[in-house]
Amino acid sequence: MGARENILVSALQRFRPAPADGPAGRTVVLRARSDGRRRLLAAAAAAMAVFATIALPTVRAGLFAFANQLIARFDETFDAYAALLPVAEGAAGPVFYLAAGAVAAALAWLLLERRSLVGLALAVLGCGAVCLWLRAGAAVPVLVLGGGGWLAAWHLAVGGRLASPGAAAASCLAGVALMAACMGAVGAYEPAPAVDALRGAVAAGVDEARFGDDALPEGDLAEVPGMGGDEERLAVTFEGVPQDQVGLRGFVGATFADGAWEPLDHAAYEGTWTGMFAWLSEQGFQPAKQRASLDDASVANGGQPTGTCTISLEAVGADRAYVYAPYSLRSAEGASIVGGRDGGTLAEGLLGERSYRIVLDDVADAEYQDAPAWLLEGGSSQQEGYAAAESVYRAFVHEHYLDVSEADRELVMRLLFDEETWDAEAADFHSTVSRVRAMLATLASYADEVEAPPAGEGFLAWFLEDAREGNSAYFSTAAVAALRAQGIPARYVEGYRIGEDELARLAASGENRLVLTDADAHAWAEAYRDGIGWVPVDASPGFYEQPYAADEVVEVNQGMAGGDVADADPAGSVGGERGAEDEGAAENADPARVAAVAGALLALAALLGVAVVVLEAVRARRRRLRAARLASPDQDVAVGALFDQMALVLRAAGTPFSAGFPLECAAQLPETYPDIVTAEYERVVDLMQRSRFGGKLLREHEMRTVRRFVGRLTSGMPAARGVRERLRRRYRDAL
């Protein structure tokens, strides 16, 4: 009789009713009683394990710690956002593993006792497949061990010796194999590149099917050249147009390595910070709504209430994994947001969020706002609650958003914060941000189309020393490293930007709907201001209104060219124009001084005539060169010449003009030029900065506006007050 027939006979004997009397009947009864005792023992072991898990803290801690290991590995592999369970740091729970092993052994015994070899095989192979998928270190040996245990169990089941010591050993072996397979999920096994690539492709396909896709690289700088285009992404409908530009935040990167930004991993929320975000929520403090909480606490101290605006967003082509929220977010209606995480506002739904309404405070950018005094002085209970919660979150921020590699730290300190021109002890937040912007604009130029960084090289060194050209993602990465090197917590952000021009157009036209495309995709840095929260810091030239330190720019250019900083032209000077030493030489050539030295009318007349001829010739040449630069078809040349001409004219007219901060004199301008409107001057300065520092090509009518305005300044200069001023204007300034 073959093996198949033996199996069939054994199965038939198992299910054939036996006679109640006689030796065979008594054997069946005893066997049934023995089987019942074994089932009772297995059930008791399982019940004790479950009871221990519920009642004993060490077992429960071990269960949670083990579950967190699986969750962390799952999130890492699938780029998911499952929250961790609350557990104390270092919780091992060895008793849990003993109880879990007992439960696994009991389940394996039940499967064997019922001869469910298929179920046992599926359990072993299923655990092994999951371990392989999650890159578990012990997956391969566990599969071998589990397979051997299954074969032994199959042999024992066929032979009918389930009550033998060998059967008990096989049951324990199967239970240990199952548990070891699960524990292997936290190992360090790395599969073959082809397997890893396949898993990544499948995960990416699942994400795209769930949330859609867009042109944002999500922190991967190798994908940055794909930014841009004209495909529609977000439809925005306004109920009240905000007064300031709006940054709709999506992806937020916290750690930078191998040319890519990654969000905070689960380790950031464990240990000391376990349960912190739940506690903050109980205090009414949410980092994504911190600006609104600050406004409410200020109102409680007698401040003016802030107005609000409402915007409705529809993700027509954007990644639905994010709820695109502004910095002054007050509430999000119709959107489920993942809680207990820091960074981007993530959608909780299976398919993300397609449409929702955002209520935001209509306030100006908080970059230049200082922390309110009541944070130090104390105040109402609401203020004290905000201050206490903010201090805890501030500690979390300073621990997790200041990391920068030593190579990048040395690079930014050398290029942006050299000791000769930078006093770190005297610097504050505003001066540091201004410095970062000015130096980055000097070291690199902005471009919409860029090349991808080479693999295997340090990104910052390549960007700032080799490529010297980048888009918003490149500038933002450099800005985050620079701010962190100065002790300011910062992180990288991607999203969509609604500029002031678009908002002004909506307000003027009465429209309320705006469709954002790939052209509106943008990246920026954000820095944490103690007491206030995260504020956007855009370091891409042409995308911010921060006045530039022109003297600083000249120094850097001279240093990079290998020249002496002392030989640099004065800020605001025109090509071919005299510096301070030349001005002194011109004054020494004054006919009165020559006459005093010569002491003779004839020498005075001769020298005066020669001086006048020379000065007039030099003046004519300078005016001719200047006119050529002003009329140049090259905007880089023309706009620079127009800015220098404006600086010369305003200084000559007595206006306190600063080339580094040209908007500071806007309020005094009407005193010198009654016919000039302040808003018109601010508009012209904005156009000049867009062209000079942002690399933006001005339209023809914008160039006419700038030329016409500078011409009005030149022709409308007030009369000179005295001969000295008249000579200075004519010969020193060539006006």
Structure summary:
This protein has 735 residues and is an alpha+beta fold. It is built from 26 helices and 13 strands.
Number of strands: 13
Q: Strand count, sense and closure of the main sheet? A: 5 strands, antiparallel
- Cα Rg: 37 Å
List low-pLDDT spans: 1-21, 23-30, 185-189, 547-599
Descriptive terms for the model:
53% helix; alpha+beta; 735 residues; 5-stranded antiparallel beta sheet
Task: Please specify the SSE layout and strand pairing.
Blueprint: H1 3-15, H2 22-55, H3 57-78, H4 94-113, H5 117-133, H6 139-159, H7 165-183, H8 193-211, E1 232-239, E2 246-253, E3 255-257, E4 260-262, H9 276-282, H10 290-300, E5 308-315, E6 329-333, E7 355-361, H11 374-377, H12 381-400, H13 406-415, H14 429-443, E8 445-446, H15 459-467, E9 469-470, H16 472-485, E10 490-498, H17 500-509, E11 513-517, E12 521-529, E13 533-537, H18 550-560, H19 580-588, H20 591-598, H21 601-630, H22 635-652, H23 669-672, H24 678-692, H25 700-715, H26 723-732
Parallel strand pairs: 8-9
Antiparallel strand pairs: 1-5, 1-11, 2-10, 3-4, 5-7, 6-7, 10-12, 12-13
Helix pairs in contact: 2-3, 2-4, 3-4, 4-7, 5-6, 5-7, 6-7, 13-16, 14-16, 14-18, 20-21, 22-24, 22-25, 24-25
What does this structure look like?
This protein has 735 residues and is an alpha+beta fold. The protein has helices at residues 3-15, 22-55, 57-78, 94-113, 117-133, 139-159, 165-183, 193-211, 276-282, 290-300, 374-377, 381-400, 406-415, 429-443, 459-467, 472-485, 500-509, 550-560, 580-588, 591-598, 601-630, 635-652, 669-672, 678-692, 700-715, 723-732, and strands at residues 232-239, 246-253, 255-257, 260-262, 308-315, 329-333, 355-361, 445-446, 469-470, 490-498, 513-517, 521-529, 533-537. The strands form 4 sheets. A 5-stranded antiparallel β-sheet has the order 6-7-5-1-11. The protein has a 4-stranded antiparallel β-sheet with strand order 2-10-12-13. A two-stranded antiparallel ribbon has the order 3-4. The longest helix is centred in the first third of the chain and has 34 residues, at 22-55. It is elongated, with a radius of gyration of 37 Å. The termini are far apart. Mean pLDDT is 75; it is low at 1-21, 23-30, 185-189 and 547-599.
